[in-house]
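Table S7 (text form). Paired inputs.
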Amino acid sequence: MIFVYFILIILIPIWAQMKVKSAYKKYSKVASSSQMSGREVARRVLDSNGLYDVSVEETRGVLSDHYDPRSKVVRLSTENYHGHSVAAAAIAAHEVGHAIQDQQEYSFLRFRSALVPVANFGSNASWIFIMIGIFARLDGMLLLGIILMAAGVLFQFVTLPVEFNASNRAMDQVVSLGIIRNDEERETKKVLNAAALTYVAAAAVAVLELVRLLLIYTGMSRDE
Protein backbone atom coordinates (compact mmCIF):
# COMPACT_ATOMS: atom_id res chain seq x y z
CA MET A 1 0.00 0.00 0.00
CA ILE A 2 2.84 2.42 0.83
CA PHE A 3 4.37 1.73 -2.58
CA VAL A 4 1.04 2.45 -4.33
CA TYR A 5 0.66 5.65 -2.32
CA PHE A 6 4.07 6.99 -3.33
CA ILE A 7 3.47 6.04 -6.95
CA LEU A 8 0.19 7.99 -6.88
CA ILE A 9 1.60 11.17 -5.38
CA ILE A 10 4.42 11.10 -7.93
CA LEU A 11 2.38 10.17 -10.99
CA ILE A 12 -0.67 12.40 -10.44
CA PRO A 13 1.24 15.72 -10.70
CA ILE A 14 3.37 14.42 -13.58
CA TRP A 15 0.25 13.34 -15.49
CA ALA A 16 -1.41 16.73 -14.91
CA GLN A 17 1.69 18.61 -16.07
CA MET A 18 1.92 16.45 -19.18
CA LYS A 19 -1.71 17.21 -20.04
CA VAL A 20 -1.11 20.94 -19.64
CA LYS A 21 2.07 20.96 -21.70
CA SER A 22 0.52 18.79 -24.40
CA ALA A 23 -2.58 20.99 -24.76
CA TYR A 24 -0.55 24.18 -24.63
CA LYS A 25 2.01 22.96 -27.17
CA LYS A 26 -0.74 21.90 -29.56
CA TYR A 27 -2.92 25.00 -29.36
CA SER A 28 -0.09 27.51 -29.14
CA LYS A 29 0.49 26.57 -32.79
CA VAL A 30 -3.14 27.21 -33.75
CA ALA A 31 -3.69 30.85 -34.71
CA SER A 32 -6.92 32.42 -33.45
CA SER A 33 -9.30 33.82 -36.05
CA SER A 34 -9.18 37.28 -34.43
CA GLN A 35 -5.37 37.38 -34.79
CA MET A 36 -5.21 39.24 -31.47
CA SER A 37 -2.15 38.82 -29.28
CA GLY A 38 -2.53 37.71 -25.69
CA ARG A 39 -1.87 41.29 -24.59
CA GLU A 40 -4.59 42.59 -26.91
CA VAL A 41 -7.04 39.94 -25.69
CA ALA A 42 -6.37 40.83 -22.07
CA ARG A 43 -6.70 44.57 -22.75
CA ARG A 44 -9.92 44.07 -24.71
CA VAL A 45 -11.57 42.02 -21.96
CA LEU A 46 -10.35 44.35 -19.22
CA ASP A 47 -11.66 47.44 -21.00
CA SER A 48 -15.01 45.83 -21.78
CA ASN A 49 -15.44 45.26 -18.05
CA GLY A 50 -14.39 48.76 -17.05
CA LEU A 51 -11.06 47.62 -15.61
CA TYR A 52 -9.03 50.47 -17.09
CA ASP A 53 -6.84 50.66 -13.97
CA VAL A 54 -5.57 47.09 -14.45
CA SER A 55 -2.44 46.95 -16.59
CA VAL A 56 -1.05 44.12 -18.72
CA GLU A 57 2.64 43.30 -18.49
CA GLU A 58 5.05 40.76 -19.94
CA THR A 59 6.77 38.42 -17.50
CA ARG A 60 9.55 35.87 -17.84
CA GLY A 61 9.10 32.13 -17.85
CA VAL A 62 6.85 29.59 -19.53
CA LEU A 63 3.22 29.46 -18.37
CA SER A 64 4.12 31.91 -15.61
CA ASP A 65 0.95 33.88 -16.34
CA HIS A 66 -0.91 35.28 -13.33
CA TYR A 67 -2.97 38.15 -11.97
CA ASP A 68 -1.50 40.22 -9.14
CA PRO A 69 -4.40 41.67 -7.11
CA ARG A 70 -2.09 43.89 -5.03
CA SER A 71 -0.55 45.66 -8.03
CA LYS A 72 -3.66 45.30 -10.23
CA VAL A 73 -1.57 43.76 -13.02
CA VAL A 74 -2.21 40.88 -15.40
CA ARG A 75 1.17 39.35 -16.17
CA LEU A 76 1.54 37.17 -19.25
CA SER A 77 4.52 35.00 -20.16
CA THR A 78 6.41 36.14 -23.26
CA GLU A 79 4.88 33.59 -25.63
CA ASN A 80 1.34 34.39 -24.53
CA TYR A 81 1.92 38.14 -24.34
CA HIS A 82 3.02 38.33 -27.97
CA GLY A 83 1.37 35.17 -29.34
CA HIS A 84 -1.72 35.17 -31.54
CA SER A 85 -2.73 31.60 -30.79
CA VAL A 86 -5.87 30.05 -29.31
CA ALA A 87 -3.79 29.06 -26.26
CA ALA A 88 -2.55 32.63 -25.75
CA ALA A 89 -6.10 33.99 -25.98
CA ALA A 90 -7.44 31.38 -23.54
CA ILE A 91 -4.74 31.96 -20.93
CA ALA A 92 -4.89 35.75 -21.21
CA ALA A 93 -8.67 35.70 -20.78
CA HIS A 94 -8.35 33.31 -17.82
CA GLU A 95 -6.02 35.68 -15.98
CA VAL A 96 -8.36 38.58 -16.69
CA GLY A 97 -11.09 36.37 -15.22
CA HIS A 98 -9.25 36.71 -11.90
CA ALA A 99 -9.17 40.49 -12.30
CA ILE A 100 -12.95 40.47 -12.82
CA GLN A 101 -13.33 38.29 -9.72
CA ASP A 102 -11.29 40.85 -7.81
CA GLN A 103 -13.44 43.70 -9.10
CA GLN A 104 -16.66 41.92 -8.14
CA GLU A 105 -15.24 40.72 -4.80
CA TYR A 106 -15.88 37.09 -5.65
CA SER A 107 -16.34 35.31 -2.31
CA PHE A 108 -13.99 32.36 -2.91
CA LEU A 109 -11.23 34.69 -4.13
CA ARG A 110 -11.57 36.82 -0.98
CA PHE A 111 -11.56 33.69 1.18
CA ARG A 112 -8.47 32.35 -0.59
CA SER A 113 -6.67 35.68 -0.16
CA ALA A 114 -7.47 35.62 3.56
CA LEU A 115 -6.10 32.07 3.78
CA VAL A 116 -2.74 32.90 2.17
CA PRO A 117 -0.77 33.81 5.34
CA VAL A 118 -2.34 30.94 7.31
CA ALA A 119 -1.71 28.43 4.52
CA ASN A 120 1.89 29.62 4.02
CA PHE A 121 2.67 29.32 7.71
CA GLY A 122 0.90 25.97 7.97
CA SER A 123 2.66 24.49 4.96
CA ASN A 124 6.10 25.63 6.14
CA ALA A 125 5.75 24.81 9.84
CA SER A 126 3.65 21.65 9.68
CA TRP A 127 6.51 19.31 8.77
CA ILE A 128 8.57 20.40 11.77
CA PHE A 129 5.84 19.23 14.14
CA ILE A 130 5.03 16.18 12.01
CA MET A 131 8.62 14.92 11.98
CA ILE A 132 9.06 15.54 15.72
CA GLY A 133 5.77 13.79 16.38
CA ILE A 134 6.64 10.74 14.29
CA PHE A 135 10.24 10.23 15.43
CA ALA A 136 9.65 11.13 19.10
CA ARG A 137 6.34 9.23 19.16
CA LEU A 138 4.50 12.34 20.39
CA ASP A 139 0.99 12.10 18.98
CA GLY A 140 0.14 15.63 20.23
CA MET A 141 2.92 17.15 18.14
CA LEU A 142 1.88 15.07 15.16
CA LEU A 143 -1.72 16.23 15.53
CA LEU A 144 -0.60 19.86 15.65
CA GLY A 145 1.37 19.32 12.45
CA ILE A 146 -1.66 17.72 10.80
CA ILE A 147 -3.86 20.67 11.79
CA LEU A 148 -1.33 23.11 10.31
CA MET A 149 -1.13 21.03 7.14
CA ALA A 150 -4.93 21.01 6.92
CA ALA A 151 -4.81 24.80 6.45
CA GLY A 152 -2.74 24.25 3.30
CA VAL A 153 -5.13 21.56 2.09
CA LEU A 154 -8.07 23.91 2.63
CA PHE A 155 -6.26 26.52 0.54
CA GLN A 156 -5.88 23.97 -2.28
CA PHE A 157 -9.60 23.22 -2.20
CA VAL A 158 -10.65 26.87 -2.13
CA THR A 159 -8.39 27.42 -5.15
CA LEU A 160 -10.47 25.01 -7.25
CA PRO A 161 -13.69 27.09 -7.48
CA VAL A 162 -11.55 30.22 -8.00
CA GLU A 163 -9.79 28.69 -11.00
CA PHE A 164 -12.85 27.04 -12.53
CA ASN A 165 -14.85 30.25 -12.16
CA ALA A 166 -12.08 32.26 -13.83
CA SER A 167 -12.09 29.81 -16.75
CA ASN A 168 -15.88 30.08 -17.09
CA ARG A 169 -15.63 33.86 -17.09
CA ALA A 170 -12.86 33.64 -19.69
CA MET A 171 -15.02 31.55 -22.02
CA ASP A 172 -17.98 33.90 -21.65
CA GLN A 173 -15.80 36.92 -22.43
CA VAL A 174 -13.94 35.59 -25.47
CA VAL A 175 -17.19 34.30 -26.98
CA SER A 176 -19.33 37.38 -26.29
CA LEU A 177 -16.61 39.76 -27.51
CA GLY A 178 -16.03 37.74 -30.68
CA ILE A 179 -12.38 37.04 -29.83
CA ILE A 180 -12.88 33.40 -30.81
CA ARG A 181 -15.34 31.85 -33.23
CA ASN A 182 -17.80 29.09 -32.41
CA ASP A 183 -15.55 26.45 -33.94
CA GLU A 184 -12.68 27.58 -31.68
CA GLU A 185 -14.61 27.13 -28.43
CA ARG A 186 -13.67 23.46 -28.19
CA GLU A 187 -9.94 24.18 -28.49
CA THR A 188 -10.15 27.03 -25.98
CA LYS A 189 -11.94 24.81 -23.46
CA LYS A 190 -9.28 22.12 -23.88
CA VAL A 191 -6.54 24.59 -22.92
CA LEU A 192 -8.50 25.85 -19.90
CA ASN A 193 -9.48 22.36 -18.75
CA ALA A 194 -5.90 21.10 -19.00
CA ALA A 195 -4.68 24.02 -16.89
CA ALA A 196 -7.37 23.31 -14.29
CA LEU A 197 -6.09 19.73 -13.97
CA THR A 198 -2.93 20.97 -12.26
CA TYR A 199 -5.01 22.43 -9.42
CA VAL A 200 -7.13 19.29 -9.15
CA ALA A 201 -3.95 17.18 -9.03
CA ALA A 202 -2.41 19.39 -6.34
CA ALA A 203 -5.55 19.10 -4.22
CA ALA A 204 -5.68 15.32 -4.68
CA VAL A 205 -2.04 14.89 -3.63
CA ALA A 206 -2.57 17.15 -0.60
CA VAL A 207 -5.56 15.08 0.52
CA LEU A 208 -3.68 11.81 0.08
CA GLU A 209 -0.83 13.09 2.26
CA LEU A 210 -3.25 14.36 4.90
CA VAL A 211 -5.06 11.01 5.00
CA ARG A 212 -1.75 9.14 5.32
CA LEU A 213 -0.72 11.27 8.30
CA LEU A 214 -4.12 10.86 9.93
CA LEU A 215 -3.72 7.08 9.65
CA ILE A 216 -0.29 7.34 11.28
CA TYR A 217 -1.77 9.46 14.05
CA THR A 218 -4.64 7.05 14.74
CA GLY A 219 -2.15 4.17 14.79
CA MET A 220 0.03 5.96 17.33
CA SER A 221 -2.98 6.79 19.49
CA ARG A 222 -4.06 3.14 19.57
CA ASP A 223 -0.57 2.02 20.64
CA GLU A 224 -0.61 4.24 23.71
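Next pair, protein 2 of 2.
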Amino acid sequence: MNADSPLGHHHLTRPLDYRSIMSGHRRGISAGLMRAGLALAAVPYRLVVAQRNRGFDRGQGVERCAATVISVGNLTTGGTGKTPIVADLARRFRRHDIRVAIVSRGYGRGDADQNDEAAELHQRLPDVPHVQNPDRVEAARIAVEELESQLILMDDGFQHRRLHRDLDIVLVDMTCPFGYGHLLPRGLLREPIKSLRRAQVAILTRCDQVDEPAIDDVIATIRSANPAIVILRSSHRPSGLLQFPDQQTAVEDLRGQRVGLISGIGNPAAFRRTAEDVGAIVVAEKILPDHAHYDRETVERLRQWATDLGDARQLICTQKDLVKLQTDRIATLPLSALTIDAEIEPSTEFDAMLQQIATAIHTTE
Protein backbone atom coordinates (compact mmCIF):
# COMPACT_ATOMS: atom_id res chain seq x y z
CA MET A 1 0.00 0.00 0.00
CA ASN A 2 1.30 3.44 -0.86
CA ALA A 3 2.27 5.22 2.35
CA ASP A 4 1.40 8.58 0.85
CA SER A 5 -2.19 7.59 0.02
CA PRO A 6 -5.04 8.78 2.25
CA LEU A 7 -5.14 5.30 3.75
CA GLY A 8 -1.39 4.89 4.09
CA HIS A 9 0.35 4.10 7.38
CA HIS A 10 1.93 7.53 7.84
CA HIS A 11 0.20 10.11 10.01
CA LEU A 12 0.98 12.85 7.47
CA THR A 13 -1.08 12.26 4.36
CA ARG A 14 -1.15 14.46 1.29
CA PRO A 15 -3.58 17.07 2.63
CA LEU A 16 -1.40 17.58 5.70
CA ASP A 17 1.78 17.71 3.60
CA TYR A 18 0.15 20.46 1.54
CA ARG A 19 -0.43 22.37 4.77
CA SER A 20 3.22 21.96 5.70
CA ILE A 21 4.14 23.73 2.46
CA MET A 22 1.68 26.57 3.01
CA SER A 23 2.74 27.04 6.62
CA GLY A 24 6.45 27.15 5.75
CA HIS A 25 7.28 24.15 7.93
CA ARG A 26 8.55 22.25 4.92
CA ARG A 27 11.93 23.62 3.89
CA GLY A 28 14.07 23.24 0.82
CA ILE A 29 14.29 24.59 -2.70
CA SER A 30 11.33 22.59 -4.03
CA ALA A 31 9.08 23.72 -1.17
CA GLY A 32 10.14 27.33 -1.69
CA LEU A 33 9.41 27.14 -5.41
CA MET A 34 6.00 25.64 -4.69
CA ARG A 35 5.19 28.46 -2.28
CA ALA A 36 6.26 31.01 -4.89
CA GLY A 37 4.01 29.38 -7.48
CA LEU A 38 1.09 29.29 -5.06
CA ALA A 39 1.64 32.96 -4.23
CA LEU A 40 1.42 33.87 -7.92
CA ALA A 41 -1.76 31.83 -8.28
CA ALA A 42 -3.25 33.73 -5.32
CA VAL A 43 -3.02 37.07 -7.19
CA PRO A 44 -5.92 36.47 -9.61
CA TYR A 45 -7.89 34.85 -6.80
CA ARG A 46 -7.47 38.01 -4.71
CA LEU A 47 -8.66 40.19 -7.61
CA VAL A 48 -11.77 38.07 -8.19
CA VAL A 49 -12.65 38.08 -4.47
CA ALA A 50 -12.20 41.86 -4.24
CA GLN A 51 -14.37 42.52 -7.30
CA ARG A 52 -17.09 40.18 -6.04
CA ASN A 53 -17.14 41.75 -2.59
CA ARG A 54 -17.32 45.27 -4.01
CA GLY A 55 -20.53 44.35 -5.81
CA PHE A 56 -22.12 42.83 -2.73
CA ASP A 57 -20.98 45.78 -0.60
CA ARG A 58 -23.08 47.98 -2.89
CA GLY A 59 -26.02 45.63 -2.42
CA GLN A 60 -25.89 44.24 -5.95
CA GLY A 61 -27.49 40.81 -6.24
CA VAL A 62 -28.45 40.53 -2.56
CA GLU A 63 -31.87 38.92 -2.02
CA ARG A 64 -34.01 38.78 1.12
CA CYS A 65 -36.27 35.99 2.28
CA ALA A 66 -39.33 36.07 4.52
CA ALA A 67 -37.47 34.81 7.57
CA THR A 68 -34.67 35.94 9.85
CA VAL A 69 -31.28 34.69 8.64
CA ILE A 70 -28.21 34.05 10.77
CA SER A 71 -25.03 33.13 8.91
CA VAL A 72 -22.40 30.96 10.60
CA GLY A 73 -19.22 30.89 8.55
CA ASN A 74 -15.47 31.34 8.54
CA LEU A 75 -12.61 32.99 6.71
CA THR A 76 -10.67 29.82 6.01
CA THR A 77 -11.17 26.46 4.35
CA GLY A 78 -11.07 23.31 6.42
CA GLY A 79 -12.74 22.42 9.69
CA THR A 80 -13.36 25.28 12.11
CA GLY A 81 -15.87 23.41 14.26
CA LYS A 82 -19.05 24.88 12.77
CA THR A 83 -21.33 21.89 13.36
CA PRO A 84 -21.37 22.04 17.20
CA ILE A 85 -21.85 25.83 17.06
CA VAL A 86 -24.74 25.58 14.59
CA ALA A 87 -26.33 22.89 16.77
CA ASP A 88 -25.95 25.08 19.87
CA LEU A 89 -27.61 28.05 18.17
CA ALA A 90 -30.47 25.89 16.87
CA ARG A 91 -31.15 24.56 20.36
CA ARG A 92 -31.18 28.09 21.81
CA PHE A 93 -33.88 29.24 19.40
CA ARG A 94 -35.86 26.01 19.67
CA ARG A 95 -36.11 26.71 23.42
CA HIS A 96 -37.96 29.89 22.38
CA ASP A 97 -40.41 27.75 20.33
CA ILE A 98 -39.06 29.21 17.10
CA ARG A 99 -39.23 27.05 13.98
CA VAL A 100 -35.60 26.73 12.84
CA ALA A 101 -34.20 25.39 9.58
CA ILE A 102 -30.59 24.95 8.51
CA VAL A 103 -29.58 25.66 4.93
CA SER A 104 -26.24 24.73 3.40
CA ARG A 105 -24.61 24.14 0.05
CA GLY A 106 -24.39 20.38 0.54
CA TYR A 107 -20.71 20.09 -0.41
CA GLY A 108 -19.57 16.49 -0.87
CA ARG A 109 -23.13 15.16 -1.11
CA GLY A 110 -22.72 13.51 -4.50
CA ASP A 111 -25.76 11.38 -5.35
CA ALA A 112 -26.81 11.10 -1.70
CA ASP A 113 -29.78 12.96 -0.21
CA GLN A 114 -27.51 14.72 2.26
CA ASN A 115 -23.82 15.11 3.01
CA ASP A 116 -22.05 14.02 6.18
CA GLU A 117 -22.51 17.34 8.00
CA ALA A 118 -26.26 17.30 7.35
CA ALA A 119 -26.49 13.70 8.55
CA GLU A 120 -24.63 14.61 11.74
CA LEU A 121 -26.83 17.66 12.33
CA HIS A 122 -29.95 15.52 11.84
CA GLN A 123 -28.60 13.11 14.45
CA ARG A 124 -27.99 16.01 16.84
CA LEU A 125 -31.19 17.92 15.97
CA PRO A 126 -33.92 15.54 14.80
CA ASP A 127 -36.57 18.29 15.02
CA VAL A 128 -34.66 20.79 12.84
CA PRO A 129 -34.93 20.35 9.04
CA HIS A 130 -31.87 20.80 6.85
CA VAL A 131 -32.20 22.05 3.27
CA GLN A 132 -29.18 21.52 1.02
CA ASN A 133 -28.87 23.41 -2.23
CA PRO A 134 -25.95 25.23 -3.90
CA ASP A 135 -28.43 28.10 -4.39
CA ARG A 136 -28.85 29.37 -0.82
CA VAL A 137 -31.63 31.75 -1.88
CA GLU A 138 -33.65 28.82 -3.24
CA ALA A 139 -32.90 26.78 -0.11
CA ALA A 140 -34.19 29.64 2.03
CA ARG A 141 -37.34 29.89 -0.08
CA ILE A 142 -38.02 26.18 0.43
CA ALA A 143 -37.40 26.52 4.17
CA VAL A 144 -39.89 29.39 4.43
CA GLU A 145 -42.61 28.35 1.98
CA GLU A 146 -42.60 24.58 2.40
CA LEU A 147 -41.35 24.16 5.98
CA GLU A 148 -42.79 27.38 7.45
CA SER A 149 -39.46 28.21 9.07
CA GLN A 150 -39.16 31.42 11.07
CA LEU A 151 -35.37 31.38 11.47
CA ILE A 152 -32.74 30.17 9.02
CA LEU A 153 -29.25 29.21 10.10
CA MET A 154 -27.04 29.43 7.02
CA ASP A 155 -24.21 26.95 7.56
CA ASP A 156 -20.89 28.06 6.04
CA GLY A 157 -22.48 31.25 4.75
CA PHE A 158 -19.95 34.05 5.23
CA GLN A 159 -18.83 34.05 1.58
CA HIS A 160 -22.30 33.26 0.20
CA ARG A 161 -23.52 36.82 0.25
CA ARG A 162 -26.41 36.62 -2.20
CA LEU A 163 -28.77 35.74 0.67
CA HIS A 164 -29.26 38.70 3.00
CA ARG A 165 -28.45 37.91 6.61
CA ASP A 166 -29.59 39.65 9.78
CA LEU A 167 -26.60 38.46 11.82
CA ASP A 168 -23.15 37.43 10.59
CA ILE A 169 -21.19 35.11 12.89
CA VAL A 170 -17.64 34.16 11.92
CA LEU A 171 -15.77 31.27 13.52
CA VAL A 172 -12.01 31.45 13.98
CA ASP A 173 -10.28 28.14 14.70
CA MET A 174 -7.55 28.85 17.23
CA THR A 175 -5.46 25.90 16.03
CA CYS A 176 -5.06 27.63 12.63
CA PRO A 177 -6.76 31.01 12.97
CA PHE A 178 -5.92 32.83 9.74
CA GLY A 179 -4.94 30.14 7.25
CA TYR A 180 -1.18 30.83 7.51
CA GLY A 181 -1.82 34.47 6.62
CA HIS A 182 -2.32 33.96 2.88
CA LEU A 183 -5.23 33.68 0.46
CA LEU A 184 -5.93 30.47 -1.44
CA PRO A 185 -4.06 28.67 -2.82
CA ARG A 186 -0.96 30.04 -1.05
CA GLY A 187 -2.75 29.73 2.27
CA LEU A 188 -6.18 28.73 3.56
CA LEU A 189 -7.87 32.15 3.60
CA ARG A 190 -10.98 32.37 1.45
CA GLU A 191 -10.84 36.17 1.65
CA PRO A 192 -8.68 38.79 3.39
CA ILE A 193 -8.80 39.22 7.17
CA LYS A 194 -10.19 42.74 6.68
CA SER A 195 -13.45 41.09 5.55
CA LEU A 196 -14.18 40.56 9.25
CA ARG A 197 -15.53 44.11 9.21
CA ARG A 198 -18.76 42.61 7.78
CA ALA A 199 -19.34 40.41 10.83
CA GLN A 200 -21.06 41.32 14.07
CA VAL A 201 -19.77 38.34 16.10
CA ALA A 202 -16.56 36.32 16.07
CA ILE A 203 -16.43 33.04 17.99
CA LEU A 204 -12.98 31.64 18.70
CA THR A 205 -13.19 27.85 18.61
CA ARG A 206 -10.93 25.27 20.28
CA CYS A 207 -9.58 27.84 22.74
CA ASP A 208 -8.73 24.98 25.11
CA GLN A 209 -6.04 23.78 22.69
CA VAL A 210 -3.88 26.94 22.72
CA ASP A 211 -2.34 29.25 25.31
CA GLU A 212 -3.48 32.73 26.40
CA PRO A 213 -0.86 34.71 24.43
CA ALA A 214 -2.05 33.05 21.22
CA ILE A 215 -5.66 33.98 22.00
CA ASP A 216 -4.64 37.56 22.80
CA ASP A 217 -2.81 37.86 19.46
CA VAL A 218 -5.83 36.61 17.51
CA ILE A 219 -8.18 38.95 19.36
CA ALA A 220 -5.88 41.88 18.55
CA THR A 221 -5.87 40.93 14.85
CA ILE A 222 -9.66 40.68 14.76
CA ARG A 223 -10.04 44.02 16.56
CA SER A 224 -7.73 45.69 14.04
CA ALA A 225 -10.11 44.62 11.28
CA ASN A 226 -13.34 45.35 13.18
CA PRO A 227 -13.12 47.25 16.49
CA ALA A 228 -16.88 46.91 17.11
CA ILE A 229 -17.14 43.14 16.72
CA VAL A 230 -18.29 41.01 19.66
CA ILE A 231 -15.65 38.33 20.36
CA LEU A 232 -16.49 35.14 22.25
CA ARG A 233 -14.32 32.24 23.30
CA SER A 234 -15.50 28.67 22.97
CA SER A 235 -14.22 25.17 23.49
CA HIS A 236 -15.18 21.92 21.83
CA ARG A 237 -15.85 19.61 24.76
CA PRO A 238 -16.08 15.82 24.36
CA SER A 239 -19.55 14.87 25.56
CA GLY A 240 -19.54 11.08 25.22
CA LEU A 241 -19.00 8.05 23.06
CA LEU A 242 -21.63 7.07 20.49
CA GLN A 243 -21.78 3.51 19.19
CA PHE A 244 -23.93 2.90 16.13
CA PRO A 245 -26.83 3.30 16.02
CA ASP A 246 -27.58 5.08 19.31
CA GLN A 247 -25.75 3.54 22.26
CA GLN A 248 -24.20 6.24 24.45
CA THR A 249 -21.41 5.72 26.97
CA ALA A 250 -19.32 8.07 29.09
CA VAL A 251 -16.28 9.75 27.58
CA GLU A 252 -14.34 8.76 30.71
CA ASP A 253 -14.34 5.19 29.37
CA LEU A 254 -11.56 6.26 26.98
CA ARG A 255 -9.08 7.09 29.73
CA GLY A 256 -6.05 4.83 29.46
CA GLN A 257 -7.47 2.97 26.46
CA ARG A 258 -5.21 2.18 23.50
CA VAL A 259 -7.11 3.28 20.40
CA GLY A 260 -6.85 3.74 16.66
CA LEU A 261 -8.28 6.97 15.26
CA ILE A 262 -10.21 7.35 12.00
CA SER A 263 -11.00 10.83 10.68
CA GLY A 264 -12.16 12.25 7.37
CA ILE A 265 -12.48 15.89 8.45
CA GLY A 266 -10.87 19.24 7.75
CA ASN A 267 -8.76 19.38 10.92
CA PRO A 268 -7.67 15.86 11.95
CA ALA A 269 -4.90 17.19 14.22
CA ALA A 270 -7.49 18.90 16.44
CA PHE A 271 -9.48 15.65 16.66
CA ARG A 272 -6.38 13.76 17.77
CA ARG A 273 -5.62 16.36 20.45
CA THR A 274 -9.18 16.08 21.72
CA ALA A 275 -8.91 12.29 21.99
CA GLU A 276 -5.59 12.56 23.81
CA ASP A 277 -6.94 15.25 26.14
CA VAL A 278 -9.58 12.83 27.46
CA GLY A 279 -6.89 10.27 28.22
CA ALA A 280 -6.92 8.01 25.15
CA ILE A 281 -3.60 6.50 24.10
CA VAL A 282 -3.45 6.85 20.30
CA VAL A 283 -1.45 3.96 18.87
CA ALA A 284 -2.43 4.45 15.22
CA GLU A 285 -4.23 7.00 13.07
CA LYS A 286 -5.97 6.79 9.73
CA ILE A 287 -6.45 10.22 8.14
CA LEU A 288 -8.74 10.47 5.13
CA PRO A 289 -9.62 13.56 3.05
CA ASP A 290 -12.33 15.88 4.32
CA HIS A 291 -15.82 14.62 3.32
CA ALA A 292 -14.32 11.21 2.53
CA HIS A 293 -16.64 8.70 0.86
CA TYR A 294 -16.64 5.32 2.60
CA ASP A 295 -17.10 3.19 -0.47
CA ARG A 296 -16.53 -0.55 -0.51
CA GLU A 297 -12.84 -0.28 -1.36
CA THR A 298 -12.18 2.27 1.38
CA VAL A 299 -13.99 0.21 4.01
CA GLU A 300 -12.12 -2.92 2.96
CA ARG A 301 -8.81 -1.11 3.34
CA LEU A 302 -9.92 0.11 6.74
CA ARG A 303 -10.70 -3.47 7.74
CA GLN A 304 -7.23 -4.56 6.70
CA TRP A 305 -5.67 -1.68 8.62
CA ALA A 306 -7.74 -2.50 11.73
CA THR A 307 -6.82 -6.18 11.50
CA ASP A 308 -3.14 -5.27 11.70
CA LEU A 309 -3.55 -3.14 14.85
CA GLY A 310 -2.42 -5.68 17.39
CA ASP A 311 -2.14 -3.28 20.33
CA ALA A 312 -5.35 -1.25 19.87
CA ARG A 313 -8.44 -2.19 21.87
CA GLN A 314 -10.98 -0.05 19.99
CA LEU A 315 -11.41 2.41 17.15
CA ILE A 316 -12.55 6.00 17.59
CA CYS A 317 -13.88 8.20 14.80
CA THR A 318 -15.70 11.53 14.53
CA GLN A 319 -19.48 11.72 14.61
CA LYS A 320 -19.37 12.93 11.00
CA ASP A 321 -17.56 9.73 10.02
CA LEU A 322 -19.86 7.44 12.03
CA VAL A 323 -23.00 8.64 10.22
CA LYS A 324 -21.38 7.44 6.99
CA LEU A 325 -19.78 4.22 8.27
CA GLN A 326 -22.98 3.12 10.07
CA THR A 327 -21.36 0.22 11.89
CA ASP A 328 -20.36 -0.60 15.46
CA ARG A 329 -17.11 -2.34 14.53
CA ILE A 330 -14.45 -2.64 11.89
CA ALA A 331 -12.83 -6.06 11.63
CA THR A 332 -12.72 -7.31 15.23
CA LEU A 333 -12.43 -3.90 16.87
CA PRO A 334 -15.42 -2.00 18.29
CA LEU A 335 -16.00 1.44 16.74
CA SER A 336 -17.36 4.49 18.55
CA ALA A 337 -17.60 8.18 17.71
CA LEU A 338 -16.25 10.78 20.10
CA THR A 339 -19.12 13.27 20.25
CA ILE A 340 -18.24 16.94 20.61
CA ASP A 341 -20.38 19.80 21.90
CA ALA A 342 -19.65 23.52 21.79
CA GLU A 343 -19.21 25.37 25.06
CA ILE A 344 -19.49 29.11 24.37
CA GLU A 345 -18.48 31.48 27.14
CA PRO A 346 -21.34 33.45 28.73
CA SER A 347 -21.87 36.86 27.14
CA THR A 348 -24.62 39.29 28.03
CA GLU A 349 -24.05 41.14 24.75
CA PHE A 350 -24.39 38.00 22.62
CA ASP A 351 -27.39 36.80 24.62
CA ALA A 352 -29.03 40.19 24.09
CA MET A 353 -28.50 39.89 20.31
CA LEU A 354 -30.17 36.48 20.20
CA GLN A 355 -32.97 37.58 22.52
CA GLN A 356 -33.66 40.59 20.30
CA ILE A 357 -33.94 38.29 17.28
CA ALA A 358 -36.25 35.89 19.12
CA THR A 359 -38.47 38.75 20.32
CA ALA A 360 -38.69 40.25 16.83
CA ILE A 361 -39.72 36.87 15.37
CA HIS A 362 -42.48 36.39 17.93
CA THR A 363 -43.66 39.97 17.46
CA THR A 364 -44.22 39.42 13.73
CA GLU A 365 -46.19 36.16 14.16
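DSSP finds ten helices and 13 strands in the chain.
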